[in-house]
Amino acid sequence: FYWMESVQSYNEGGWDYTTELRKFVEGGMTGSEFIDGVSGIVNRGCHNPPCGTGAVDGGWERAENFKKVLDVFFDGSYPQVAKSPSISPPQASPIGSSPQAGS
Questions:
Q1: pTM of the predicted model, to two decimals?
Q2: How many Å apart are CA 50 and CA 56, to the nearest integer?
Q3: What residue ranges of the chain have pLDDT lower than 70?
Q4: What is the 3-state secondary structure (H, E, C) of the chain?
Q5: 39 near 51, Cβ under 8 Å?
Q6: Cα 95 → chain centroid
């Protein structure tokens, strides 16, 4: 519950969990910026500690463990991921222009 309520919905100070996750995946799942931000949210309540509550406890170890999990999960060979297309709302069709069932 905490993960859904506080981490996945996190969007503060220009850092949005979903956007950062997409950037991490589309960027080849490299670097520690994503896991560092998530660690800060979980451990200190912000994506860029110390944020008034102190440094992240075990941040380096958490980043190393995250990398190990990804290496095991993908057997050391991360998949190629295409960038997400921009999502725009569907265009509304004019009234009366929708096709009728069975025609």
A1: 0.71
A2: 7
A3: 80-103
A4: CHHHHHHCCCEECCEEHHHHHHHHHHCCCCCCHHHHHHHHHHHHCCCCCCCCCCCCCCHHHHHHHHHHHHHHHCCCCCCCCCCCCCCCCCCCCCCCCCCCCCC
A5: no
A6: 38
CA pair distance 92, 76, nearest whole angstrom = 45
pLDDT one-digit tens code per residue, 78-100: 776 666 655 444 444 445 444 44
Contact 21, 31 (CB under 8 A): no
Of residues 5, 30, 27, the one with CA closest to residue 17 = 5
